[in-house]
Amino acid sequence: MQNVRVEKLVKRFGDVVAVGGISFEVPKGKLLTLLGPSGCGKTTTLNIIAGFETPDDGDVHVGERLISSATENVLVPAHKRNLGMVFQSYGLWPHLRVRDNVAFGLQMRKTPKSEIAGAVERALGLVRLDGLGERYPSQLSGGQQQRVAFARALVYEPDVLLLDEPLSNLDAALREEMRLELKDLQTQSGITTIFVTHDQVEAMVMSDIIVVMNEGRIEQMGSPSDVYQHPANEFVAGFVGISNFLEGEVVAAGSGGAETAVKVGEVTLRCKTAGVSEGSKVLLSIRPEDCVASNEAPPEGTPNVIKCSVDKAVYMGGVLELWLSASGRQIRVHGHRLPILESGASVYVSIDPASISAIKGGPS
Amino acid sequence: MTEMRPRSFAMFRLPSTVRVLEWGCLLVIGFIVLYPLFWLVLGSFRPDPISTDFTLDAYFAILEEEYMGEVLWNTAVMSVGVTSLSVLIGVPLAWIVGRTDTPLKNYINMIAILPFIMPPVVVAVAWAYLGTPRVGFVNLFWKWLVGTREPLFDIFTMGGLIFVMALSLAPYVFIFTVTAFKNMDPTLEYAAHVSGASQWKTTLRITLPMAAPAILSGALLTFIQSIEVFAIPATIGVSGGIYVFSTQLWRMMIGIPPNFSHAAALSIPILLVCGLALWGQTRALGRSARYTTVAGKSFRPRLVELGPWKYVSLSFAAFYLLVSAILPVLTLIYGTFISNRGRPPTFEYLTLGHLHEIITGDGGAVILRSIQNSLFLSFMGATIGIALSAVVAYFVVRSTWKGRGTLDFLALIPVAIPGAVIAIAMLWAYIREPFNLYHTLWIILIAYITRFLPFGVRAVSNSITQIHEELERAAAVSGANWGVVFWKILVPLAMPGIVAGWIILFVSMMRELSASIMLFSSNKEVISTILIQLYDEGLFSHVCILSLIIVILSLASVALVRWLTKQTDVEGLT
Question: CB-based contact (8 Å) between B194 and chain A?
Fold first, then answer.
C-alpha cells in the first residue's frame, strides 16, 4: 500500500487543455474521488496515472517511486506500474473463464502456479463469488461481472486501485448496493484508491477526500462534508447537491464567534461565515433541505425567517419540493410534513445560520 | 444480429397474399436449391442419367481408380496449404490495417475488395505468364538480376499452385479478421496492461485469442473456396500435371462419354466436407460477434505505435499488393499492347494490333459471341437473382413467420456447394423431363442464380437491417397499412442496397468459371470458358485482353457499388 502524489499535471489535446496543472495527494489507504461533469479532465487524469496517456507536464509518484515525469523524462509503462483498475465497461476478457480473468495479473507476475489457485479462490471469496470461477463472463449478471472486475484488480495486491466510473453501468438499485459493498471492500483491504465519477451521491458515500474538478482545474478539495457544507464557490455548490444562490452585501462582519449579517434585498440573513469584510459583496449558498418551511409564522426570535409565496409545489413522496419567491427572488425548499400547498399560498421559511455558507468574493 | 431486432410484421394485420407469398418464396427457393441436390444424390446411385437402376457401382469405381488417391492427396495438401498460407498473409495484414499506425493504411485496406477486382481466373493466367521457369517475367528478371541461367522458381508445381491460390484467397481471412480487430473494445487491452502484461503479451494473450473465432471463420471460408476455385488448378495445376478434386470432376465430364455417375459420387463426400466447414464457419462467426461487439458504445481501437517497424509492416503489405495485383495487371497490360511476347515494353513495340485482331480476326467471332452470351446471362441472372434475393431477405429480416429460419438456411446452402458440384447437380436435374435443358444457356442461367443467391440475399438483408424499424412504425402510426409501408417506405430506402446487390451478382456471373466450364456447349460459350480455351491454345495476347476487360469491368462495378453504398451507408457488401 502506498500514497499517491500528483504534481502540476498538465495534458493538452491540440489546443484544448484537458488537465490544467492540477496537484493532489491520496494518503495511504484512503479513497480519493475525482468528481466533476463530463469533460472536466477527471478521466484523463486517471488515464495518466494508469499510464494510458502521456502527460505534457507534471509528476506522478506512487510512494517514493516516480512513475511519470515530464521534466525528468520518466514514463513507466502501464504494465510495470503495479496498479489495479476497474473499468466502466468492466473490461472482462470474454474468451477467458472467470478464474483465468482473475489469475491473469498473477500469471504476468510469474507467481507460481501452486499459489495462483489459492489466491484466485480468496479473491473470488472476497467479492462473494465463490464457485463461479469456471463460468465465462457472459454467463454472469452485471453485478457479478462487476465483482469479477474487482477481484481481478485486487488479486495481485497492487499499490493503488483505480476506479473509472465502475458503477455507472449498473441499474439504480444495484448501484446503491454496490456503493456500500465497494466502500466496505476498500476499507477492509485498506488499499489506496482513486475513484472517478460524475455522480455526487456516489462520491459522498464512498470518499475520504473529494476533489471537485471543472474544465481541467480543481475547484475544491476536502472531505465530503466539507465540500457539501462549505462549498468553495458557486460551481461546487451547484454541482454537489442543489443550492439556492443569493447575492448580498455584508452589513456586519462577524468575528470572535459573532454572526455575520448579510443584506439580501430587503431581508438580512445571519450566517456563521467569518473572514469577510463589511461592505463586500458575497454570494450565499443555501441548501433546499436546510430550509424549514411551515404555514404558520415561527416563534419570535427564530433567526432568518423569510415570508414567501408558493410558485409551484411538487409532491415527491416524502418530500414536498417548493419553488418559492420572496421579493422577486426564487428559492427552492424541501418541505417535510406539510399539507399540499396551492400556488399563491404563503409560507414561512427559516434557515439555521450555521447552514448558510457565504462564498467569498461574491458571484464570479 | 437480425434475430434481436424487432420485426415490423408484428404490427400489421397482414393481407393473406403475404402469407401466400411467404409460402411461395419458400417453395421456389426450396426447389432451386434442393431439387438439383436431390438428383445429385440419386444420380450417384445410378449407372447413367437414363437408367433407373439403383447401384453402388459408382462409389466402388471411383475408389478403385488408380489416380483417386493422388487426387485426394493433392486436394488435401492444396486446401490445407492454401488455408494456412492465407492465414499467415491475411492475419498480419489485418493487424497492420486494424491496429497499428502503419502509414498508407487506407490504401492497404483495399485488400478487402481485391477478390472482387481480381477474380481467380485472372490471377491464375497472369501468374502462369509471370512464373513459367523459362520465359516467365519474374524468372527472366531474376536471371538478369543475378546473372544465372537457373530460374528462381517453377510456378507449375504444388508450391506454385498453393502460392497463387493463397494470393487470391488471403483477402477472405483479411476481411473477417480486420473487422474483429476494429470492433474490439480497447478497455480489454487496457485491463491487460494494468494487470502487468506488456504490449507483446497483450497481443498474444488478449488480442489474438479474441480475434481467433474471426480468423477461424475466415480460414474456413478460404478452405471452402480452395476446394471450390477451378481456374487456378485448371491452369497452373493442370500445366504441372497436378489434378485436384475440381479438375478431376472436369476430367470426368469432358471424357467421351462424360461420366455423370462417377462425378456425382465424387461430389458427395466433397459436399459433406464443405457443408461441415460452412457449419463451423457460421458458428465461429457467431462466437466472434459475441467477443467483439459492445452494445451501444462507440470507440476507436487503440493503435500500436510501431516506430521504425512501421516500414517493415508497410513493406509487407506493399509486397503482397505487388504480387497479388500490380504484377498481374502489368502483365495483362503488357500482353495487350506489346506486339510480341518477350519484347521489351518500349514504344517501339507498342501496338493496337491485338485489339484489332480480336475484333476483326477469325477467332474474334467466338470471343464476341462469348461476351454476348455472358452479358445476356449476367443481366438476366442478376435481375432474376436479385428479385428473388430481395423477397427472401425481406421475409428473413422482417417477417414473424415461423418459416423464415428455414428460408434463411435454404438460401445459405449454395455457399457450401462448389461450382463444379452445382453444375453436375444441374446436369442431373435439368437434362431430363420436364426440363430438357442440356446444351442450352438456360441451364447455365439457373446455375448462376442458384450459386450466387446467398450473396444477393446478404447484400439486400444488410441494407434492410440498416433501415430503422421506427421508420416503418412511424408510417404505420400515421395510418399506412402493410402494403403502403412496403412500397412507400421500405422499397425506396432499400433500393441502393438492391442495386448494389444487382451489380455484385452481375459481375460475379460475368466471370463465373467453375460451373460454366461443365455446362457450356458449342455456341454457348461464356467469357471465362473462352479465356481458359485461349489459355490452353497459348494465345497470350488474347488471354491478356480478355482478362483486362474483366478487371476493368470489375473495377468500374466496385466504384459504382461504393458510390451507391455511400448513399445509404450500407456495410459489408463486398
Answer: yes
Interface contact B291-A89, CB threshold 8 A? no
Which residue out of A95, A102, A157 would a mutagenesis test of the B interface target, given it has the greatest number of B Cβ atoms within 10 Å? A95
Q: Which of B184, B187, B189, B195 should one mutate to test binding to chain A, selecting the residue with the greatest count of A CBs within 10 A? A: B195
Q: In this structure, which CATH number among 1.10.3720.10, 2.60.130.10, 3.40.50.300, 1.10.40.30 belongs to the domain B1-43+352-574?
A: 1.10.3720.10
CA distance B528 to B546: 9
The SS3 call for residue A214 is strand
| Alpha-carbon gap, residue B421 to B227, rounded angstroms | 11
Q: How far apart are CA B97 and CA B179, in angstroms?
A: 10
Find the CB nearest A85 among B191, B205, B212.
Answer: B191
Q: By three-state DSSP, how is residue A280 classified? A: coil
Beta carbons of A310 and A344 less than 8 angstroms apart: yes
Q: What is the mean pLDDT of residues B538-554?
A: 88
Beta bridge partners of A313: A322
A93 contacts on B by Cβ (under 8 Å) = 188, 191-192, 206, 210
**pLDDT tens, A258-279?**
788 888 888 888 888 777 788 8
Instruction: Return the pLDDT at B1.
Output: 36
Domain range list for chain B: 1-43+352-574
pTM over 0.90: no
pLDDT recorded at residue B296: 42
Question: What's the CATH architecture for A4-237?
Answer: 3-Layer(aba) Sandwich (3.40)
Domain segments of chain A as ranges: 4-237, 242-359
For chain A, how big is the Rg over CA atoms in Å? Answer: 25
Query: A81 at the B interface (CB within 8 A)?
Result: yes
- State whether residue A110 sits within 8 Å of chain B by CB: no
pLDDT at B6: 57
Q: Which fold has domain A242-359?
A: OB fold (Dihydrolipoamide Acetyltransferase, E2P) (2.40.50)
Asked if the domains at A4-237 and A242-359 fall in one CATH topology, the answer is: no
Residues A204 and A223: their CA atoms lie apart, in Å, by 9
Between CA B410 and CA B297 the distance in angstroms is 34
Q: With cut-offs at 50, 70 and 90, classify the pLDDT of residue A163.
A: very high
Task: List, for residues B347-406, the tens digit of each pLDDT value.
Answer: 777 777 777 777 777 777 888 888 899 999 999 999 999 999 999 999 898 887 888 889
3-state secondary structure of B459: helix
Q: CA-to-CA distance for B100 and B314, rounded, in angstroms?
A: 10
Q: 10 Å Cβ neighbour count for A296?
A: 7
- Alpha-carbon gap, residue A24 to A158, rounded angstroms: 20
**Which residues of A are less than 8 Å from B192 in CB distance?**
79, 93, 104
Contact state of A156 with B195 under an 8 Å Cβ cutoff: yes
What is the value of ipTM here, to two decimals?
A: 0.77
The answer to whether the bond into B496 is cis (omega within 30° of 0) is no
**Mean pLDDT in chain B?**
86
Q: B467 near B494, Cβ under 8 Å?
A: yes
- Which residues of chain A have a CB within 8 Å of the CB of B198? 77, 79
Supply the mean pLDDT for chain A. 89
Given this model, what pLDDT does residue B568 score?
54
Probe site for chain B from A79, A97, A150 (most B CB atoms < 10 A): A79
Q: Which residues of A touch B188 (CB under 8 A)?
A: 91-94
Please check whether residue B191 is in contact with residue B167, taking contact to mean a CB–CB distance below 8 angstroms: no
